[in-house]
Amino acid sequence: MTELNGGPDNVPWPEPPEPGGDPVVDSVAGGLTDLPGLPVEEHLARYTEIHDALLSALDSEDT
Questions:
Q1: Tens digit of pLDDT for each residue in 23-56?
Q2: Does some domain include residue 4?
Q3: Domain containing 40: what range?
Q4: Domain count, the chain
């Protein structure tokens, strides 16, 4: 039987996405590049920062 804590030491992360053409979104998405090096307990805070920055960018868009 496989142990619950017997996972791999390293999990391959996907390559960062190519820039999408919106400088604000590209800048915010850049915050994902160092995610693999952060402790797991810091991931939620990073995702929250990215979410809030994207939401702020959307709210400031001219309609």
A1: 999 999 888 888 888 999 999 999 999 999 999 9
A2: no
A3: 23-60
A4: 1
